[in-house]
Amino acid sequence: MRHRRPLALLLCLLLALPLGGCAAQSTYQRYSVNFFDTFDTLITIIAYAPDEQTFLTISNEAHARFQALHRLFDAYNAYDGLNNLYTLNERAAQAPVPVPRELMDLLLFCQEKQPLTQGSVNVALGAVLDIWHRYREAGLADISAAELPPLADLQAAAAHTAMANVALDLAQSTVFYQDAGLKLDLGAVAKGYAAELVAQHLLASPLSSFILSAGGNVRVGLPPRDGQRMAWGVGIQDPNGNVFSTPDSDIVETFFVSGLSLVTSGVYQRYYLVNGVRYHHLIDPATLMPGQHYLSVTVLAQDSGLADLLSTAAFLLPYEQSRALIESMDGVDALWIFPDNSVQMTDGARRYAKSAGATSLIEK
Questions:
Q1: Is 43 helix (H, G, I), strand (E, B) or coil?
Q2: Do 84 and 73 touch, CB atoms closer than 8 A?
């Protein structure tokens, strides 16, 4: 059995429905679509559109965009005629590999933003993460044989994780690994980065009033076009809650937002059990073991790619460092859920929090 929680952030769908007793002040209607074939997660788009055909056309474009980005950022599969992340890990140590501009842009984004994480995120940690991935998959396939990777193997792989050994040639749009043992893994940022690209497409379309959920990544566009609310409601699920929770259960906090991303990193998405102990997929580069400070961390920021990167960083840093990192950045806030189920959040996050009096309604 695979132990995966498909939704780290629940859309509060009850809040996305028209409120009884109020007439909508817009000709726009609410539509929604789900698809399951990209980034190993359920993706949901809820948007207001002038008509169903407009919604279907643009949501199909968004779906195709997600599919293309998934193939490009995929570290585990090859695709005919495409130099993707898998191609880089197979060939870039032998010679420079030309890559599409979107993959180059993501690598540049990581190169620029990764230093902000104080060493807690390293997309060049792929050799270490590959070992954890193999042991996790074996443990999920046969729980009786589940075991931890030998520390010596992890330490040997960690000797090949310097981002400085990834040479990016912008003029030629090529990538070259200067260390034959190095591998890239973009799992800490790729889904959020892709969600932001899709969100920008939606914002430039008639579907600019939307909420986009990709597992633990939620990107919200303009406020709902129903004439009733100025924000979308996004519920933060209890990491210990039921995977089949409804929007009114197992919710630790609800944020009312527009124009923001909320990204959660937590212990409940990808993990396996060894002797009854849970080992999740968020690996600390310092210890080469899963981080143990929190059950989950949710980051609020405008850019979904940055929020994705920072949610991993904030999850892996001790609380004082984690909070200092978040508070050092303009327009970035966070909520932490600790192993004892206690909750902390930044003052900025409280502006959007239901528990602090925030609401989705337009004040009249």
A1: strand
A2: yes
Query: What distance in Å separates the CA atoms of residue 234 and residue 46, rounded to the nearest whole number?
Result: 12
Domain count, the chain: 2
Whether residues 62 and 16 fall in one domain? yes
Cα 195 to Cα 185: distance, rounded to the nearest angstrom? 18
CATH code at position 306:
3.10.520.10
Residues near 108 by beta carbon (within 8 Å), at least 6 away in sequence: 168, 170
For residue 311, being part of any structural domain is answered with yes
Instruction: Answer yes or no: do 281 and 338 share one domain.
Output: yes
Per-residue pLDDT of the chain (364 residues; tens, 9 = 90+): 333 333 444 444 333 433 333 334 458 999 999 999 999 899 999 999 999 999 999 999 999 999 999 999 999 999 999 999 999 999 999 999 999 999 999 999 999 999 999 999 999 999 999 999 999 999 999 999 999 999 999 999 999 999 999 999 999 999 999 999 999 999 999 999 999 999 999 999 999 999 999 988 999 999 999 988 999 999 998 888 755 445 556 899 999 999 999 999 998 767 889 999 999 999 999 999 999 999 999 999 999 999 999 999 999 999 999 999 999 999 999 999 999 999 999 999 999 999 999 998 865 4
DSSP bridge pairs for 262: 218, 300
Question: Which residues constitute the domain of residue 35?
Answer: 9-73+189-356
Report the C-alpha gap between 278 and 273 in whole angstroms: 5
Final residue before a domain boundary, out of 121, 143, 177: 177
Rounded to 5 degrees, φ, ψ at 268 are -105, 5
Q: Name the 3-class secondary structure at 206.
A: coil
CATH of residue 91: 1.10.3980
Residue 13 makes CB contacts below 8 A (sequence gap 6+) with 46, 247
Q: Please give the Cα distance from 307 to 305 (Å, whole number).
A: 5
- The helix/strand/coil state of 237 is strand
Q: Tokens 């579907």 correspond to what residue?
A: 207
